[in-house]
Specification:
Outer membrane efflux proteins (OEP), alpha+beta, 549 residues
């Protein structure tokens, strides 16, 4: 009855266990969607909302203008903008984390040669039925416990060395056992070393070298990003300078137009000019007012762009702070040596350095794959000392006496028949290396093309500066002459307004030429992989403390 009850209990436990497994599997792979951590409503991805704008009344606008706080001015030099960009730019902060990640990958690959400590504990109690000559079935009971401590040391040659200490205790209760319980101990040293495939430091440090190359490539890309960001802030700075100077020109032209309007009004009241002169000069005032509005909008756009690049706390894009460039352009004509600048670009451009590192990766890969295509020949050697006794002390005493020693040497051979997979990988690595070599030549030609274009653009902008200055001087004289003619009654306001428009356009062209010349200097430095200025820029990876999770 008890055996039947035990059998039923066993079947019950089995069925309950299977049921729990099935239920767990159904819960894990259920298709109701609630197993996902994030669930978005379909309306958020399939429904497009409309933009609702509220019309502003004139009364509300006037009320806001009365209480509006005038924005404060902030003068910034080009060096200050560079420093703020290096400290706060978001794109740069993202890029500066990549070198730390790449360095950790190198550490991860180096960790494959760390030693490993192993421990094992086994306890078993068996009761095995055994047939006897008395036509009976008797039981053979064994109470066994074993412990094992070991250290595995990987070698950079591809092999490994193992040290192992084992201890066991067995109690059988058999009258035929000399020692009951009996204690056994073993001390072993094993060495495994491949002889062809996977042998040697170069083959086993391949992953470390690739990780180190990737780290250097990341550093090169980070340096390129630093140069790009600083060059971008330089360009935005000079465009803001040009926009603000243009706004000053438009305001001065507005003042001149308004003075002309008042002068024409006096002439008409005195009967010296016809009524149409008032209409002409008033239209000129309105035209200059529109130009001021467009210039102010351009200034706001440039300010917002510079604030976005700087990303300084308290100087966000929505702040009303007015940014005023304090650095003035200093146009200097340079004697540009094309061959020297091209050679500098080839040496400094991070794209070329990245390709060189990738070619080094390809060479290491070809070497590694050649090693992997060799036959696998592995040699094993194991040395073991045995101990046995009625007590653990007796067993270890016999162990340290080294009376019973074992030696085992093994040699394994594995030769792939055909090895088409290895040959295919070798050919792919070789083709990729050839492709990188061709790409390096193509990249060098492209860099030379960019440098020569930057040199020509710089020279053209210098000529624009000279021409625009001469035009500004002549249009200023022409405007003064037309204004004098109008005052003497020998000309009309149309001639004055046209001369004033030409003078304003000449001033605007000169300002743009100065800004474009500074920007072309930035472009030339960027094309050569360098930066303008006397001070060098040094970046460091953005590393977080170890306690950050």
């Amino acid at each position: 009855m008890s055996k039947k009850f035990s059998l039923e209990c066993c079947w019950f436990v089995i069925f309950v266990g299977l049921g729990l497994i099935v239920l767990t599997g159904c819960e894990q792979f259920s298709g109701d969607g609630y197993s996902y951590e994030t669930r978005i409503a379909p309306e958020e991805t399939r429904q497009i909302e409309t933009l609702v704008l509220q019309e502003t009344s004139d009364e509300e606008k006037a009320r806001e203008d009365v209480n509006e706080v005038p924005p404060k001015d902030l003068e910034l030099t080009l060096e200050q903008c560079r420093a703020l960009t290096l400290e706060n730019n978001l794109a740069l902060k993202v890029q500066l984390i990549n070198p730390a990640i790449a360095a950790e990958k190198v550490s991860q690959q180096e960790a494959q040669f760390e030693s490993v400590f192993s421990s094992n504990l086994i306890y078993s109690k068996t009761d095995t039925p055994t047939a006897s000559f008395l036509d009976e079935i008797s039981g053979s009971q064994v109470d066994y416990i074993a412990t094992n401590l070991g250290v595995q040391v990987p070698l950079r040659t591809g092999g490994s060395v193992g040290f192992n200490l084992a201890d066991n205790r067995a109690k059988t209760g058999s009258p035929y056992s000399v020692f009951d319980p009996s204690y056994g101990s073993d001390l072993s040293v094993s060495i495994t070393q491949p002889l062809l495939r996977g042998a040697g430091k170069r083959a086993n440090t391949y992953a470390i070298r690739i990780a180190e190359y990737e780290r250097q490539i990341t550093d090169a890309r980070t340096k390129l990003e630093v140069i790009r960001v600083i060059a971008a802030v330089d360009r935005v700075y000079w465009r803001l300078y040009a926009a603000r100077r243009e706004l000053d020109v438009r305001k001065k032209q507005y003042d001149l137009s308004y003075l002309l309007y008042e002068q024409a009004n006096r002439f008409v009241l005195a009967g010296e000019k016809p009524q149409i002169e008032i209409i002409r000069t008033e239209a000129g005032v309105a035209q200059q007012l529109e130009a001021i509005i467009l210039a102010e909008n351009s200034v706001r756009d440039r300010e917002r762009e510079l604030k976005r690049v700087l990303n300084k706390t308290g100087l966000e894009m929505q702040t009303p702070t007015v940014l005023i460039p304090a650095t003035e352009p200093d146009p200097v004509h340079y004697d540009l040596k094309k061959q020297g600048l091209v050679a500098t670009a080839i040496n400094n451009r991070m794209e070329m350095l990245e390709l060189e590192l990738q070619i080094a990766e390809d060479i290491a890969t070809v070497d590694y794959l050649h090693n992997q295509s060799l036959p696998l020949v592995t040699m094993d050697y194991r040395y073991n000392i045995n101990g046995l006794g009625p007590t653990r002390d007796d067993s270890f005493d016999l162990l340290f006496d080294k009376r019973f020693e074992d030696h085992r040497v093994g040699l394994q051979l594995l030769v792939p028949l055909g090895n088409e997979a290895g040959k295919s990988q070798m050919r792919q690595a070789f083709y990729q290396r050839r492709q990188r070599l061709v790409n390096r030549d193509s990249r060098g030609a492209l860099i030379e093309f960019e440098v020569l274009n930057a040199i020509d653009q710089l020279e053209a902008n210098w000529q624009r500066v000279l021409a625009s200055r001469q035009r500004t001087i002549l249009d200023s004289r022409l405007f003064e002459a037309e204004k004098r003619q109008f005052e003497l009654g020998l000309g009309t306001s149309t001639d004055v307004l046209q001369a004033q428009a030409n003078f304003a356009e000449a001033q605007r062209t000169e300002i743009l030429a100065l800004a474009e010349y500074q920007i072309s200097l930035v472009d030339l430095a960027y094309a050569t992989g360098t930066l303008l200025g006397a001070a060098k820029v040094r970046w460091e990876p953005l590393v977080f403390p170890d306690n950050i999770k």
